[in-house]
Amino acid sequence: MFDYQYPDAAGHFGPYGGSFASETLTFALQELRAAWARYQHDTQFQAEYQRELAHFVGRPSPVYHAQRLSAEIGGAQIFLKREDLNHTGAHKINNVIGQAMLAKRMGKPRIIAETGAGQHGVATATICARYGLECIVYMGAEDVKRQSPNVFRMKLLGATVVPVESGSKTLKDALNEAMRDWVANVDNTFYIIGTVAGPAPYPAMVRDFQRVIGEECLTQMPELLASLNLAAQQPDAVVACVGGGSNAMGIFHPYIPFEATRLIGVEAAGEGLDTDKHAASLQKGSSGVLHGNRTFILQDKDGQITETHSISAGLGYPGVGPEPAWLQALGRAQYVGITDSEALQAFHHLCRTEGIIPALESSHAVAYAMKLAKEMRPEQSILVNLSGRGDKDIGTVADLSGEDFYDRPSMRGLKVKGSDKQHEPHHRNV
Ligand SMILES: *Cc1c(COP(=O)(O)O)cnc(C)c1O
User: Fold this and answer.
1) Quick one: pLDDT at residue 410?
2) Atom of ligand 1 nearest to the CA of 320
3) Ligand 1 centroid to 246 CA: how many Å?
4) Ligand 1 centroid vs 23 CA: distance in angstroms?
5) 60-89+211-395 is classed in which CATH architecture?
6) Mean pLDDT lowest for which of 56-65, 149-158, 260-269, 412-421?
7) What is the distance in A from the centroid of ligand 1 to the CA of 209?
8) Could you identify the atom of ligand 1 that is nearest to the CA of residue 362?
9) Potential cystine with 154: which of 65, 159, 278, 413 (Cβ 3.0-4.6 Å)?
10) Cβ(360)–Cβ(347) below 8 Å
11) Model pTM?
């Protein structure tokens, strides 16, 4: 068994993590650590959390054998953990419920959050409506323009969306603004962070709220594998996309002791890992402090955070949580890159072979699983965390694929804007 007991009492995952915060926030963070330490093992809190997951989110989410996809590839069996079926369409709600429940118990009626693509903002606005909490979401002004359906959703749910006009007007600027708000309003405000980043206790706390994904898989997989007459109890590999790392940590963490199961995180390689247009903090970044913790970040030689690029806004975080970074250092997880065009191709492939429209973020994990499956035998298996559904992405996909896209007899053989790679069509329509 792989021995793994992290973080330490101060929130360190080896050299990563910790808590870098102003004096004002130090007190708020201590208060949060105390509350989490108290409720983490509180049976009433845990029972309410489980009820919310069952009745509001719709858990457990199924694991689905992607039979046609696997057969077509002819290698390992691919299984999908269906986080796309959760209420609000992704894994983010698992975490947001837990933090909002803590906010209620701590007597904080005002919730703030940052959002990039708007998915975390929508999940936060949803739970604030459910619990009657005030909700303020900081969002870069550029992202507000690019993600208008999610802005409407947040407003419908009663949230105030604050467009952030500073810097590049994207996620990192929204993060700074949310931090500033928190400093000014710590007394009545709870900051709901959307991934396994931020100062301690956030990375471990968010992971613990997302662990339910992997825990369910631990009981679902043996039954599924047995039904296919496969000898293994657990998958040979678990694959998840990595933005900040919350869906990956959620499915990886319960699998850490299972050393026969490889853990593979997929970062957005954008236009290529050898270009400067990607979001691969773990593969191309370096150690630094962002968002109150030490981790791998994309920075220039002066330590300024650089802009990220990905077809999927949710993978565009310029850093990554400290725990995914530590798993890389320990050699327990590996990280790979999938480009925009590979992700888009996998998106279409899953739509057509399985009747599932995946989020573009999740399509990165699907794309890597498809590559990996080819090198494996049919009696082996890969479990993919399908972190979200793709409804939010259909406009992006149509834009990338050309105006007459939906009218073509075959939508295969797509060319992605900004990429000179032409995909090989599977069936040529002559
Ligand atoms: C936000 C998001 C991600 C990326 O965030 P992680 O913290 O890395 O999980 C991935 N997939 C979907 C569907 C998302 O909404």
Assistant:
1) 57
2) 8
3) 7
4) 31
5) 3-Layer(aba) Sandwich (3.40)
6) 412-421
7) 14
8) 11
9) 159
10) yes
11) 0.94
Ligand 1 binding pocket mutation candidate from 80, 81, 85, 91 (most atoms within 8 A of CB): 91
Q: Does the CB atom of residue 324 touch ligand 1 within 6 A?
A: no
pLDDT tens digits for range 255-304: 999 999 999 999 999 999 999 999 999 999 999 999 999 999 999 999 99
Binned at pLDDT 50, 70 and 90, residue 424 comes out as: very low
CB 195 within 8 A of CB 316: no
Sign of the CA dihedral with 86 first, then 90, 96, and 98 last = positive
Beta-strand pair 134-140/160-164: parallel
Q: What is the mean pLDDT of residues 346-375?
A: 98
Point out which residues pair with 367 in neighbouring strands: none
**Hey, where are the domains in the chain?**
20-54+91-207, 60-89+211-395
Count of alpha carbons within 13 angstroms of residue 59, beta-carbon side: 23
* 173-214 tens-digit pLDDT: 999 999 999 999 999 999 999 999 999 999 999 999 999 999
3-state DSSP assignment of residue 302: coil
Find the catalytic residue in 114, 177, 342, 361. Answer: 114
Q: What tens digit of pLDDT does each residue of 121-164 get? A: 999 999 999 999 999 999 999 989 888 899 999 999 999 999 99
% of the chain at pLDDT higher than 90? 86
- CB neighbours of residue 181 within 10 Å: 18
* CATH topology for the 20-54+91-207 domain: Rossmann fold (3.40.50)
Domains 20-54+91-207 and 60-89+211-395 share a fold: yes
Contact in structure between 231 and 260 (CB atoms under 8 Å): no
Check the CA dihedral 122-391-317-264 and report its sign. positive
What is the pLDDT at residue 313?
A: 87
Give me the long-range contacts of 143-148 (CB less than 8 A, separation at least 24): 143/115, 143/116, 143/117, 143/118, 143/169, 143/170, 143/171, 143/174, 143/313, 146/313, 147/117, 147/118, 147/313, 147/392
| Contacts (Cβ under 8 Å, ≥6 apart) of 414 | 341, 344, 345, 348, 400, 401, 423
Task: Work out which ligand 1 atom sits closest to the CA atom of 247.
Answer: 9
Catalytic annotation present for 387: yes
User: Which residues of 212-304 form beta strands (DSSP E)?
Assistant: 237-241, 262-270, 286-290, 293-297
Residue 321 above 80 pLDDT? yes
**Average pLDDT along the chain:** 93
Closest protein CA for atom 1 of ligand 1: 314
